[in-house]
Amino acid sequence: MAWILLFVAGLLETGWAIGLKYTDGFTRPLPSLLTVLSMVASLGLLGLALRTLPVGTAYAVWTGIGTVGTALLGVALFGEPATAARLACIGLIVIGILGLKLVA
């Protein structure tokens, strides 16, 4: 169950990272509210996952999921470059996340 909570927390981290772009410096009320709610929920679920998972592993996986999700959505939503090198590096992060899951 802790891994599921951690995965959802990572998805929510992606949500708030992308949400920051839509807040326009926290000047837009609805995107700002949704972004802050996503932040709180993400940290809350991370905290719950830390009840049973090692902090180093959980934090690395949480940030890794957020990083991969944010990078991929940056490409899809904002036209950021999807170069082979960038995608390869994102792939390395995914491998790292899977590796941490397998050894934890």
Automatic annotation (TrEMBL):
One Pfam entry for this protein is Multi_Drug_Res
Source species, please? Answer: Methylobacterium tarhaniae
The organism's lineage is: Bacteria, Pseudomonadati, Pseudomonadota, Alphaproteobacteria, Hyphomicrobiales
Family from the record: Belongs to the drug/metabolite transporter (DMT) superfamily. Small multidrug resistance (SMR) (TC 2.A.7.1) family. Gdx/SugE subfamily.
In Swiss-Prot or TrEMBL terms, this protein is called Guanidinium exporter
TM spans, by residue?
33-50, 57-78, 84-103
Keywords annotated in UniProt: Cell membrane, Membrane, Transmembrane, Transmembrane helix, Transport
Annotated Gene Ontology cellular component terms: plasma membrane
Tell whether Heme is among the UniProt keywords.
no
Gene3D superfamilies per record: 1.10.3730.20
Q: Which biological process annotations from GO are given for this protein?
A: xenobiotic detoxification by transmembrane export across the plasma membrane
Q: What is its main location?
A: membrane
Q: What is the annotated localization of this protein?
A: Cell membrane
